[in-house]
Amino acid sequence: MKKRFIFTVLMLLAVFTLVACGETETPEVTLSAITFSGVDNVTLDFDADFNVLDGVTATGNNDVDYSDLITYSHVATTIITDDVLDTTVTGQHAIKYEVEVDGILAQVFRMVTVSEPAAVEGQMLVNADFSQGTAGWDGSAVYIADGAEMTLSTEDFDGNLAFKAEVVVGANVWTPRFGQMNVPFEDGKTYEISFKAKSSAEKIINLQVGEILAGAPYWNDFKPGLTITKTITTEWATYSYKFTMNQDNQAGGILFEMGTIGSNAVNATLWFDDITITETTPDLDETAPAFTGLAASKSILVGADFVPMAGVTAFDIVDGDVTEDVVVEIKDSMDAVVQSVDTSVEGTYTLTYTVSDVAGNEAEFVVTLEIVGMQFSDTNLIVNPSFEADLNVETPEWALWQQDGYWATPAPVVVTELDTTAGTYSLDITGGGDAAWAVQFSQDGIELVEGNTYRLTVMVQAEVARKINVAVGYGDPWVQYARFDGQDVATDETTLEFLFTVSQATHEVKVVFELGSQDGFADGLVTFSEVKLQEALLDDIIMNGQFNTGWELWFQDWGDAPTVTLDRTNGSFDLAIDKGGDAFWAVQFNQLVDLEAATTYTLSFDASATVARNINIELLGTSLEGDSKGSFDLTTGVQTFTVDITTTDALTAAKLSFEMGATGSFAAGTVSLDNISLKVKDDAEAEELIINGDATSVPYFMYDNAGEGAGTMVLGENSAVIDVTTLGSQPYTPHFYQMIEGLTPGDYVLKIVLDSTVDRDLRVNMVLPDSGYASILADGSVDFGVVSTETNVVYVTFTVTNEVTNVKLELDFGTLTDLTSAVGVFTIYEVLVYQDLN
C-alpha cells in the first residue's frame, strides 16, 4: 500500500510539472483570411525605378507567408515588364494584387501615380524636345470626345524625335486636343509660341492659351477675343503666334485643338517638333476690337423689348474689354437718325455699332433690324367659324349651356338665332345667373399642342355695351389652358384678339365664351360674326424633339393600295411591301436635302431584297429625274451602289426619293436600305447631307462620353435610347445634347420625358460654349430625380434676359456630387423648349 501511494504521488507530480512547463500541444489555426502589406498608394518621379513587388507581402491569419504566390494585373495603358513599372508613362496606374490559397481569395488595389517630368531650367515647357516620349503632353490637357479619336506617340526623323498625333475629328473644335498645363506665364509679359509641324493631309488647327477649369465655365482664356488658327500643310513648316499675358496665373498652358473648325473636319496624322515659348515684345497694334453678340440681320416681333446693347460686347486684344466705348447710331427706314427703335409697329431700322481702341483702330458693324408681326397658319381650328352653315346637331361644333332654375333663381333666359345668310349667331340674354359661367357659348374637340402659340380672334358686338370672359380648357374639374376675363364688347362690332402659349399637355380643349353675370354685365343681344383660332408659325427651338427617323414613308392609299411597314430592329431600314400599287411612285421613302446649284454629288447606299427586284431613285432638279432617274437591281445579297448626281443651275433643295412601287421588276417582299450617304463628289472635307443614313442615328442630337464615361445612343421607336455603362468623374461625363441656334429675350419652358432603368439623379443645363460654358439657367444647372417605376416628366422654367446664340442644351448622366449617380438605360421620348408668351 505504501509503495503504491508513493508511485501515484510521483505520477501526479510529473503531470503537474509538464503542465507547469507549458509543454501542452497548441491547436492548429485554420486559414480564413490573407492580409497584404506594402501596398500603400505611392507617387513616383518621372522615370524612377519601381518594382511593383518590392516590399509587398501577403500573410495569412495562420501566420504563414504567402508572398511567393502573389500575382497582379493592370490595364493595357500601364506597362510592366519583369515586375518593373514603366514610369515614363505619366498619370495614375491601378494595380490589382491577388493571392488565392485553398479557396481563400485576397485582393487589393494600389494606385501608383507617376509625376510629369520637370522642365529643364530656362525652359517653360516640359519635355520640349520629346526625348522623354509623350510625357508632359499626354496628361490632363488631353481631351477626346464627340466621336473623336487620337493616338499619341513619337516618331524618329533622322535621329530627331517628333511628336505624332493620329487624329479622327469630333464634332467640336476641341475634340480632340493635346497640350500642356502649368506653364509659368508672367503677368504683363508678351510671349511667342513657335512650333514646327506637318500633316498627312492639309488641316486647320486651333491654338489656345489658357487654364482648364474643373467646373463651369470650364475654360479661362488667356487671350480673350483673339482666335488663332493655322493651316498645317503636308511639308514641314514653322508656325508662330504671340499673346500678352494679363493675369497672375501660372496654372494654364497651351492647347493644340484638332477637331471640326467650321466645315473643316479633316482626319489626319500630324507631327510636331521644336515647340518653344519665348519672351518677346508685342507687335504694333493694328487690330481693331471685335464685337460679339451681333448679326448682320435680325428680326423681332412687334411689341418685343429691344435694347441695342443687350448681349453685345466688344473686346480688344491689347486693351481688353471696350464694351463701354461702343457707340450705336440708329436710322429708320427713311435713313433719318432716331433715338430709339419703336417696336410697337412693323418697320425696318439700321443700327451702326462703332468702337475704337487706344491705338486708334476702329471697328464697325452694321445690323439691319426688322420689326415683324407674328405670322399665323391659314388653318382655322374652329369649325363653322363664320356661321355660314347650319349647326351640326349630331356632333355639335357650337353649343349653348346655361344655368337652370335648380341652381339659380331666377335662371338666365337665352334665346338664340343663327343667320347663315348674314353669317351671325345671336344670343338674347336676360339675367346673368350666379356668375359669368352661368351662360356659356362654346366649341369643343379642338386639339392644342403643348409648346405651340395660338391666336384667338373674335368678332362680336352687343346691343348694350358689356363685358364677357373667354376661357380655353377642358374637363370637370376644369383644366385651364388660357383665360381672358373682363373683355369689353361695344355696340359696334369689336374684334377681340388673344395670344397664348399652351403650357399644358397636348389635349382636346373647349373654347368658351362666358356671357353670364360679372361687373359690366348687361341684358341684351350678343352677336358673334366670326371666331378664328390659328397656330403661330414659329421656328422649332429644338429639332426633332420627338425623335423621328429623319425619313418620310409614303405609299398610295387609294385603289389597289399597297401595305407597307417599316422596321429598324436589324439596324437598317427594312420596308415590307406586299403590292406595287398603280406605279413606281406608289411606295416612296423620302428625305429633303439641301443642295448647291451646278454641283456634282456622290450618292451611295447599301441595299438588298428578300426577293430579287429593282427600285428607282429620283432627285428632282438633278440628273436623277424624269427618264434619267436611277434604276437599281437588287439581289438577296447586300450590294453597295454608288452614283454621281449633278444639280441644275437653279436648284437649292430637293427630295431624295427611293421609289419601290410597281417598278419594272417589282416583287413583293422586304427591301433593306442602309448606310445612305450624299456628299459633294471628290471633296474629302464634304459635309454629309443625309440625316440618319444608318437607321440608328438620332437626328440632331449627340451623345458625348467626354473621354471618361462610356455608353451608346441609338434611335428607338420615337425615342433616343442611351445606355450609360461607365460614369466619369464629372456630371457631364457622359452627356446628351443638342445645339440651339439662338434664343431671344423672354420666358421659356423646357420639358423632358424619359424612362430610366435605375433610380438616380440627373442634371440639365443650358450653356454658352462661346462664353466659356456659362450657364443661362438661374442656378447654373437644375438637378432632378428619376425613378424606374414610371415615366418621368420634367419641367424646367428659365428666363433669357439678353439674346444668346449657339446654346448647348445638355442632359448629364455623369457623377453628381452628394446626389445619387448610377449607370443604366435611359429612354428619352420628348425634348421640348418653347417660349411662353402668356
From TrEMBL:
Q: Which residues form the CBM-cenC domain?
A: 123-259, 380-518, 540-661
Gene3D superfamilies to which the protein is assigned, alphabetical: Galactose-binding domain-like, Immunoglobulins
Q: Which UniProt keywords apply?
A: Hydrolase
What InterPro entries has UniProt attached to this entry?
A: CenC_carb-bd, Cry22Aa_Ig-like, Galactose-bd-like_sf, Ig-like_fold
Question: Could you confirm whether the keyword Hydrolase appears in this record?
Answer: yes
Signal peptide from the UniProt entry: none
GO MF annotations, alphabetized: hydrolase activity, acting on glycosyl bonds
- Determine if Cell inner membrane is one of this entry's keywords: no
Pesticidal crystal protein Cry22Aa Ig-like domain boundaries: 298-365
| Superkingdom | Bacteria
Q: What is this protein called?
A: Uncharacterized protein
Please give the organism: Mariniplasma anaerobium
